[in-house]
Write a structure and sequence with these properties.
- The chain starts with 5 loop residues before the first strand and ends in a 10-residue tail after the last strand.
- The chain has one domain (6-170): 3-Layer(aba) Sandwich (Aminopeptidase), CATH 3.40.630.
- By secondary structure, it is of the alpha+beta class.
- The protein has helices spanning 16-23, 26-29, 41-52, 107-122, 137-145, and strands at residues 6-10, 63-72, 79-88, 91-98, 127-132, 149-151, 167-170.
- The chain is built from five helices and seven strands; from the N terminus they run E-H-H-H-E-E-E-H-E-H-E-E.
- The chain binds coenzyme A.
- Residues 28, 31-32, 96-98, 103-109, 132, 136, 138-139, 141-142, 145 line the site of coenzyme A.
- Coenzyme A (COA) is lined by residues 28, 31-32, 96-98, 103-109, 132, 136, 138-139, 141-142, 145.
Length: 180
């Protein structure tokens, strides 16, 4: 699967080695796992094997997982990042990361634009949410460019990625009523 500059493939254990290097970079972890223990390469391989087979203990029966590795279109490109989405029926959550070497080039925007097209085809009508640490300026700018709208966090659905103080965004003009 391709966009202008990027190649996407379903995430499996073969992507763990490249993503391990990215996921042990402090700048990448700053807002996604600032204090948590870094996974070992073996743990990351096991996690990606599990992700490839879908939810084991879904929080609701309709839970679906989508995970993609991102490469540049250039021949023999390493994996440069990862896209995630989890849907829970009418709504879902997205997450994204790129290695720092690929920031500031519009590639996350391109990847997320492609991701929403992919998700709209795979899961039509799902309303997509994102949660962001308030200091994560790059991610905030990206969501704005993608036309996400900020919503008061008290209106969020049961977002699994929400940490206290996060800002919440939704890709829709129409925010339905949810109970967190
Ligand atoms: C969040 C993250 C994906 C954003 O990446 P990014 O490269 O800044 O995002 P974009 O693809 O939108 O690129 C935008 C930048 O590229 C520049 N750019 C260059 N060419 C461009 C083009 N053709 N189109 C759009 N932007 C372009 C923009 O001017 C902008 O630069 P600026 O940030 O200096 O203003 C990245 O910082 C990241 O992976 N962070 C770590 C993980 C993380 O925090 N994930 C999100 C958790 S909520």
């Amino acid at each position: 699967m391709l966009s202008k500059n990027l190649h996407f493939e379903p995430l499996t254990a073969v992507h763990a080695d490249d993503l391990f290097a990215i996921l042990t970079t402090p700048s990448v972890l700053a807002f996604i796992n600032p204090t948590g223990r870094r996974p070992t390469l073996e743990e990351l391989r096991a996690e990606y094997t599990a992700r490839a087979s879908g939810p084991v203990a879904p929080i609701i029966p309709a839970e679906k997982w989508f995970n993609m590795a991102i490469r540049l279109k250039a021949p023999s490109s390493k994996v440069i990042g990862r896209l995630e989405a989890t849907s829970y029926g009418q709504w879902g959550e997205v997450a994204y990361l790129l290695g720092q070497a690929w920031w500031g080039k519009g590639l996350a925007f391109e990847a997320m634009h492609w991701w929403h097209d992919y998700l709209a085809a795979a899961m039509p009508g799902v309303q997509w949410w994102a949660t962001v640490h308030p200091d994560n300026q790059r991610s905030l700018r990206l969501l704005t460019r993608l036309r996400y709208k900020e919503v008061n966090s008290s209106q969020r659905p049961r977002l699994q990625s929400y940490d206290l103080g996060d800002r919440c965004f939704v890709l829709s003009n129409h925010v339905r009523e949810y109970t967190a």
